[in-house]
Amino acid sequence: MGSCGTWAWRELLVLLSSVWLWVGSAQPTLPGPTHTPRPQLKFRLAGYPRKHNEGRVEVFYNDEWGTICDDDFTLANAHVLCRHLGFVAATGWAHSAKYGKGIGRIWLDNVNCAGGEKSIGDCKHRGWGNSDCSHEEDAGVICKDERIPGFKDSNVIETEQSHVEEVRLRPVVSGARRQLPVMEGIVEVRYKDGWAQICDEGWDSQNSRVVCGMMGFPAEKKVNRNFYKLFTERQQLNYRLHSVSCVGTEVHLSMCTFEFYRGNTSAACRAGMPVVVSCVPGPLFATGNAHKKKQRQQQQGQPRIRLKGGAKVGEGRVEVLKSSEWGTICDDRWNLLSASVVCRELGFGSAKEALTGARMGQGMGPIHMNEVQCLGTEKSLWSCPFKNITQEDCKHTEDAAVRCNIPYMGYENLETWYWDASNVTEMVLSGVKCAGHEMSLSHCQHHGTSLNCRNTGTRFAAGVICSETASDLLLHAPLVQETAYIEDRPLHMLYCAAEENCLSSSARLANWPYGHRRLLRFSSQIHNNGRADFRPKAGRHSWVWHECHRHYHSMDIFTHYDILTPNGTKVAEGHKASFCLEDTECEEDVAKRYECANFGEQGITVGCWDLYRHDIDCQWIDITDVKPGNYILQVVINPNFEVAESDFTNNAMKCNCKYDGHRIWVHSCHIGDALSEEANKRFEQYPGQLNNQIS
């Protein structure tokens, strides 16, 4: 009791002293409540890969660096943080640890700024250190590259950093300096305004594997250390790291253990030399004989994994081949280790991002794998533990995707720009035909030196508008199979259809209005599984009004319908103008945006589909002149590539047809790239029938 009483008296004296001090020092005219002194906050941008005005946000609070969770993050939050860092404003923000996962505490969560606050601490949040997030949710910002006038860089931390971010391979052999990609060289890390080396004492192949993965290469190989030792003995070196130890599954060198050299490094690494790494390129980036050898190896069998729907090489939705059918992967437990196995299997480096929630668009067909848990050392994703999927477990809204590290090729320094054509003085390419996977226009088919429009002036200058996202249309194949039937339709009911060229050419010779045409009718349900709405190329001002059907055509040809013989000969054809592109139905939680009534906007929203029922005009193929036999029914959406899509290989659908002159059987309908190459060969007897790939 005595000790407790003494403690209570001490507390009371301290409290009274505090009150006396406050009363004595307070302004007599503006009394107010006391405020706990706010700890000094510091901020920095970190992570990889990034520019100086973007990165993962790290905040120094309570003598410890930590991160901010991306839950409820907004552009207003980014504005406040960018001003903290001395930039005038933010242009964007990033979620899901785009710039890599931080370490330490997650200081803030559910941050909600209005945008005008002077400090992030003035914004609403859950409280310092109160978070239910992991570092996979670290937020980043992209600041406008304009500094606040007179701003003192107190928050741009230029101290001895405790982590490594930017890494490069510096070629030293004269010939290698001019070649891209750089596959061999001295490993260097960014340090202040220059580059520094790593001591190779204790360096092993696992470390090299990590570096090669960062550089976009799937594997490493041994290097002639003696050659480089002679070279580096004559160089001025600046060592930064030593004692690097990687497991080999890390996606970045910063995730390995290492130590920094401190102070004067002139005597560093006396028993070693700078780290030198040599990498093995994937098939896309190999050159010369090595490239041909890789191609031969690939031709021996079809790969069982692919990326679809990405805007760039090395990114996309992950699809795997099982039982001769392509399917997707559910994103449960999807992480960088599994994503890196995918990337390396495809000939890229380690993964930059493991994307969830169908960030690269939704697939169709089966979901083959769930809860994939790779160690990171596997040669193939199929070697990783996973669960077989049931329909209740996952939906295509959970399709997993990846972004892989790819080698720097310098293609952004070449020939491809979009500009005001009035200044064009020379044409350099004509007849360009790309399949879509090429990394440069020079890799596509073209006329070479035989230019077709050398002296035509600017009238035929090509241009592009680039986007990170695009639509992706797919036809629902089972519905075609379920709804196909034959109708003998009287000619007097086909005048409007004839006006829109929906009948075969022989119809012009018929004895109108007597007789009939035999029509193969079916429904088309066209889904947009991409990442951007599908909009007609032409604006509303140029849509064509068709009085007979009383509607506008926003696209003259939206689909092609063909009946083909097994050897590829076309025996009947039809086409479908876009009577009206609209959202007939949408997935749950997706709102319709387009409808044709009252001259409304036309298009198909992401996650919605447009349904052309079998009983509307022109939703058919005129088979009046087709003889009995076995045929292929082929439907191609957006056949003239008028509207950009992330993937054109899935725009075609085909079915087997058996016609006996009275009835028709339609079966085995599937999307163009849904089956394995072997299954397609069993289905078709000639190449190119299945899809609209450019040959």
TrEMBL record:
An MF annotation (GO) of this entry: copper ion binding
Top-level lineage group: Eukaryota
Main localization category: nucleus
Reaction(s) catalysed by this chain's protein: L-lysyl-[protein] + O2 + H2O = (S)-2-amino-6-oxohexanoyl-[protein] + H2O2 + NH4(+)
SMART domains in the record: SR
EC number of this enzyme: 1.4.3.13
GO biological process: collagen fibril organization; inflammatory response
SUPFAM superfamilies, per the entry: SRCR-like
All residue ranges annotated as the SRCR domain in the record: 43-144, 169-280, 305-405
Maturation and modification: The lysine tyrosylquinone cross-link (LTQ) is generated by condensation of the epsilon-amino group of a lysine with a topaquinone produced by oxidation of tyrosine.
Subcellular location as annotated: Nucleus; Secreted, Extracellular space
Gene Ontology CC, one term: nucleus
Record's keyword terms, sorted: Copper, Disulfide bond, LTQ, Metal-binding, Nucleus, Oxidoreductase, Secreted, Signal, TPQ
Family: Belongs to the lysyl oxidase family.
The protein's role, per its UniProt record: Mediates the post-translational oxidative deamination of lysine residues on target proteins leading to the formation of deaminated lysine (allysine).
Name this polypeptide is given: Lysyl oxidase homolog
Organism of origin: Falco tinnunculus
